Amino acid sequence: RLPSLNRANVRLGEPPPEPASSLQFKLQDTLKLTNAAKMVINPTYLAQRTRSSVNWNDAKRRVVHSYRDWLRSAPEVQTMYSLNLPVSTLRTKIRQEFERHRYVNQLRTVDVLLFSSHQEFQETLNFWKQTSHVLKYFRAEEEPKARLPSNFINGFLEVCISQLSVTE
Description:
Helix 2 runs antiparallel to helix 3 (87-99). This protein has 7 helices and no strands. 58% of the residues lie in helices and 0% in strands. It is mainly α. One of its GO terms (cellular component) is respiratory chain complex I. Belongs to the complex I LYR family. This is NADH dehydrogenase, alpha subcomplex, subunit 6. Keywords: Electron transport, Membrane, Mitochondrion, Mitochondrion inner membrane, Respiratory chain, Transport.
């Protein structure tokens, strides 16, 4: 227990007593650090109204805007989640994710994809995800066993060939 300062233990003309140990200073420093390290949680940060695209030009403009937002935020995502990946790899993966849906030809589907993209963007930049959630996009590049073979025969042949090369 830390000593308290009240009338009973302070004599007139004497300076206040020193802290009993450096524990009080450590406690004060810890409180300062934790208050500084707390992130302000603002759930409306990056919030947008959900809306439908009026036409294809509007949808294209919204997709390009979303894509550019993701590209601009890549360095911030790298530092926030302490990723051991270069920013160029993050940007390449962002491009791959957008290219995956390049040939969608229904306007409502594009709107749903835009909504989910912005939801991911907001969750990522608000630090509502864990590092493993961000790294799930890079799992196939890191672990060769994470990808599935195209069919049973190809998978069987890959396993047989890899076992033959290990035994030799």
